[in-house]
Amino acid sequence: MMQKSLGEKLFDVFNITFLVLLSVVSLYPLLFVFFASLSDPSYVAQLRGLMLFPKGLTFDAYLRVFDNPLIGSAYFNTLFYVIVGTTVNILLTSLGA
User: Is pTM, for the whole model, over 0.85?
Assistant: First the structure.
């Protein structure tokens, strides 16, 4: 196995650092929304800064969503568009190939 040159080592360090930072910047908004959905709303409203874990664990937001009578039809519409859209896309792509 050949040893890496100094330039290759520096490139690897830069690449790994950049990709880790990019991953953190990309994943934190998703984690924030998830943690906020599990946290006490009054805590989230007055929050300044980062949220690294849920505060005042509560499932009230999810209970309110599933209490909505329209959630079933919305979920059906989502599944319908995904299934029909994927089927049509595959069919048309196959015809064009």
Answer: no
